[in-house]
């Protein structure tokens, strides 16, 4: 049987249009697919609250997407709903307030649950994680619903409903996981383990306004005009990738999640229902720069200058840097050192190329690059 993905052409965030599209989508994919999910189940909505950012920036999940999901699920009898996320640096409350989600949740009487405490979830089948640190509200809920925005990503190429589930790990421990699994393949296998463990019964990807270029925070908003939803998170993301010209097979966490049985990747095994993908496909979508994180063990003889030539390090534009210190705080290896009021400096020998600094920078002042030009941090 093919995995069903519902595709709808949606040009803006008008509540009535969104509600109609989501209602039609749930009917078309026969939600819920599993009989274990009932109207008595507790459902945790997981938006992407990367950082306190305005709705216009296209950094976080659009508030109207969350609100529409709540309304449509309630119309189908699902009453025990909550929402939550665990930003790596800033508080859940601050991020939700900035993007407008907090106010809409209040209007709809849905609690926002901060992810402040992790509990260990045993996962014997994991390739990398045999125990997964998950926020308590995630473990306490019957199911997680991933509500993500389509974005490019400097480390993983693409950020969608699967990458969004990394936010189910609370707070700063995510940075330590970047350090522990700093090889890109290992990091993305770790992401795949989380997807395979959680297996959300519903995933919704907002492609109405996406982020292209240097995502997940420093890219540019782009009106792409569609939404995708389905019970298979891998198939939803794979379909989105094909719509914007990204080869899903090159998004490693999608490939690894498919190998783990968490969904399907091949186009021939996905049934797209609703709009014709050919009518919504984009040929000029700006993808993220090629990932530069290490992909294998560095030879032991690489030291000093030679190391700096081949390993990725952050380059900080002192003209853009606002000296907020977010990059210093998030760095899992202490490779960045604060020099306020000047821009931070970088230690090339400590950098692992995880791009956490680049991801959290609010002023687009950081590039993680290979080569000698990148090792001296400030320009």
Radius of gyration: 20 Å
Distance between the termini: 55 Å
Give the DSSP E fraction (strand runs of 2 or more residues). Answer: 15-25%
Tell me the CATH architecture of the largest domain.
3-Layer(aba) Sandwich
User: In terms of quaternary structure, what is this?
Assistant: single chain
The level 1 CATH classification of the largest domain is: Alpha Beta
Q: Could you report the average pLDDT, rounded to the nearest whole number?
A: 91
Order of helices and strands: EHEHEHHEEEHEEHHEEHHEHHEHEEHE
What fraction, in percent, of the residue positions are helical? 25-40%
The number of distinct helices, counting runs of at least 4 residues, comes to 13
The total tally of domains equals 2
State the shape: globular
Number of strands: 15
Category from helices, strands and their pairing: alpha/beta
**Which fold does the CATH topology of the largest domain refer to?**
Rossmann fold
Major sheet: size, sense and barrel closure? 9 strands, mixed
In short:
This protein is an alpha/beta fold and 379 residues long. It contains 13 helices and 15 strands. It has helices at residues 15-28, 63-75, 92-99, 101-107, 136-140, 173-180, 184-198, 233-243, 252-259, 277-280, 304-310, 326-330, 356-360; strands at residues 3-9, 43-47, 81-85, 112-114, 118-122, 131-135, 143-153, 157-159, 203-212, 220-230, 270-274, 313-316, 336-339, 342-346, 366-369.
Task: Describe the protein.
The protein folds into two domains: 278 residues, 3-Layer(aba) Sandwich (Rossmann fold); 71 residues, Alpha-Beta Plaits (2-Layer Sandwich), CATH 3.30.70. Helix 2 runs parallel beside helix 4 and helix 7 crosses helix 9. Strand 5 and strand 6 form a beta hairpin. The protein starts with a strand and ends in a 10-residue tail after the last strand. The longest helix has 15 residues. It is built from 13 helices and 15 strands. It has 379 residues and is α/β, with parallel strands linked by helices. The strands form four sheets. Strands 1, 2, 3, 4, 7, 8, 9, 10 and 11 form a nine-stranded mixed sheet that branches. Strands 5-6 form a two-stranded antiparallel ribbon. Strands 12-15 form a two-stranded antiparallel sheet. The C terminus is likely disordered.
């Amino acid at each position: 049987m093919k995995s069903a993905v519902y595709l709808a052409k949606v040009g803006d965030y008008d509540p009535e249009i969104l509600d109609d599209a989501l209602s039609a989508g749930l009917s078309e994919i026969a939600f819920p697919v599993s009989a274990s999910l009932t109207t008595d189940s507790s459902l945790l909505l997981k938006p992407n609250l990367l950082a306190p950012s305005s709705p216009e920036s296209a950094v976080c999940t659009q508030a109207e997407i969350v609100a529409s999901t709540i309304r449509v699920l309630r119309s189908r009898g699902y009453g025990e709903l909550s929402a939550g996320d665990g930003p790596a640096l800033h508080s859940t409350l601050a991020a939700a307030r900035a993007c407008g989600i907090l106010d809409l949740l209040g209007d709809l009487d849905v609690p926002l649950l901060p992810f402040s405490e992790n509990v260990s979830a045993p996962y014997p089948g994991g390739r990398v994680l045999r125990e997964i640190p998950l926020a308590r509200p995630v473990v306490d809920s019957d199911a997680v619903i991933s509500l993500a925005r389509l974005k490019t990503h400097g480390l993983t190429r693409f950020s969608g409903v699967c990458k969004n589930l990394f936010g189910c790990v609370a707070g700063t421990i995510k940075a330590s996981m970047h350090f522990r699994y700093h090889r890109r393949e290992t990091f993305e296998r770790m992401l795949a383990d989380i997807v395979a463990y959680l297996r959300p019964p519903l995933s919704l990807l907002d492609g109405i306004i996406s982020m292209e270029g240097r995502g997940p925070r420093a890219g540019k908003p782009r009106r792409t005009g569609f939404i995708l939803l389905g019970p298979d998170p891998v198939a939803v993301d794979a379909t989105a990738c094909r719509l914007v010209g990204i080869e899903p097979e090159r998004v490693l966490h999608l490939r690894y999640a498919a190998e783990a049985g968490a969904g399907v990747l091949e186009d021939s095994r996905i049934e797209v229902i609703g709009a014709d993908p050919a009518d919504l496909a984009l040929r000029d979508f700006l993808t993220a720069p090629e990932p530069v994180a290490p992909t294998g063990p560095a030879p032991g003889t690489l030291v000093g200058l030679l190391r700096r030539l081949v390993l990725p390090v952050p380059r900080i534009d002192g003209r853009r840097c606002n000296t907020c210190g977010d990059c210093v705080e998030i760095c899992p290896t202490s490779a960045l050192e604060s020099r306020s009021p000047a821009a931070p400096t970088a230690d090339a020998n400590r950098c692992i190329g995880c791009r956490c600094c680049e991801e959290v920078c609010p002023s687009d002042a950081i590039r993680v690059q290979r080569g000698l030009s990148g090792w001296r941090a400030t320009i």
